[in-house]
Design a protein that fits this description.
Blueprint: H1 2-6, H2 8-27, H3 34-52, H4 62-82, H5 87-105
């Protein structure tokens, strides 16, 4: 559970990439085309970028910037692929924007400072 809490932003971005591959299939009889798969790859690469972004002082918004840049790349890819944004691409744009918003809303993982006591677990009750 601690791993999930520590990497919640990257996992939410990965979920957006998975949803960008699955959700359009639910709303369309046609499979994803080349532009659709490029969008999924962009979102997956964004999840890796968000995972690697630092949670250091001065870089509080690094993960958000990575998520917004990824969503922007999906919009740009959809607009430039064939000159027309299809219904599937609009769904992927929405999913990428939702993923960026989720990254924004989730808190950054906090590591204990050097003067904080680590969490301890006691098995025996104290008297």
């Amino acid at each position: 559970m601690d791993y999930v809490k520590q990497h919640a932003k990257a996992l939410s971005a990965l979920a957006a990439a998975i949803l960008a591959a699955i959700v359009p299939a639910l709303y369309s009889d046609a499979p994803l085309g080349f532009a659709g798969w490029v969008n999924v790859i962009i979102l997956a690469a964004g999840a890796v970028q968000i995972f690697n972004a630092a949670n250091l002082a001065g870089y509080e918004y690094a993960k958000l910037i990575a998520a917004v840049a990824t969503a922007g790349a999906v919009v740009l890819s959809s607009a430039l692929s064939d000159g027309d944004v299809t219904r599937i691409e609009w769904i992927q744009v929405f999913v990428s924007a939702l993923g960026a918003f989720t990254v924004y809303r989730l808190p950054n993982a906090q590591k204990p400072g050097k003067h904080e006591a680590p969490e301890t677990v006691t098995d025996a009750p104290t008297a």
